[in-house]
Design a protein that fits this description.
five-stranded antiparallel beta sheet, 10 strands
């Protein structure tokens, strides 16, 4: 035997998705698709990766310790540890183009204290926050964008608790220039186009 469900007859050149009728004729209500831009998940980049050694596959080279900070390699992650009662941070300078938009991604992992959070600060100086501060928590990927205001921009990774011996682990640090002419289109249904 054959079971048929959801058969539907429609006038027109293109069929629509199934419209439940419950035994009587129905008219489709308005439909909309709303997707926040942050959920598009698609970027066109105008540059290759700008961060050198952001995945810490073998070491922590190209990263510099800020004041009162010890940096170490921890199983493929960067360990940022405070040596005094000041917040600890690591930084790296990257070359940027003034006025261009960049996408930055960092992952803050485990910490020694539940009060410790990872913060990514973007500035024109080591440890600076002149451009942006991206707040995050432990076990959290931080994704944001910034517009460069100088030809050298500093990516600063902070362990927020100002207590000696506390640390935060970071991984997957990435900065890439976004192509300003890129377009994202998301749709649900049928689309026709003629140029």
């Amino acid at each position: 035997g054959v079971l048929i469900y959801g058969a539907q007859v429609e006038a027109g050149a293109a069929p629509s998705s199934y419209i439940p009728t419950s035994g009587s004729q129905q008219i489709r209500g308005g439909q909309s698709l709303t997707v926040p831009p942050a959920e598009f998940g698609w970027y066109s980049y105008a540059s290759s990766e700008l961060v050198d050694n952001g995945k810490f596959e073998t070491d922590i080279s190209n990263w510099t310790a800020g004041p009162d900070t010890t940096l170490s390699y921890d199983s493929g992650r960067l360990k940022v540890e405070s040596t005094t009662t000041a917040s600890a941070h690591a930084y790296q300078a990257i070359t940027t183009v003034v006025g261009q938009r960049y996408r930055v991604t960092t992952t803050a992992l485990e910490a020694t204290s539940t009060s410790s959070n990872g913060r990514t600060k973007i500035g024109t100086t080591a440890g600076g926050t002149q451009i942006k501060t991206i707040l995050g928590v432990r076990d959290d990927e931080q994704v944001d964008e910034f517009v460069a205001t100088a030809t050298t921009t500093y990516i600063n990774l902070f362990q927020s608790s100002a207590t000696s011996g506390l640390y935060m682990l970071f991984d997957n640090i990435s900065v890439r220039e976004i192509n300003p002419l890129s377009v994202s289109i998301q749709m649900d249904g049928r689309m026709t186009y003629a140029d």
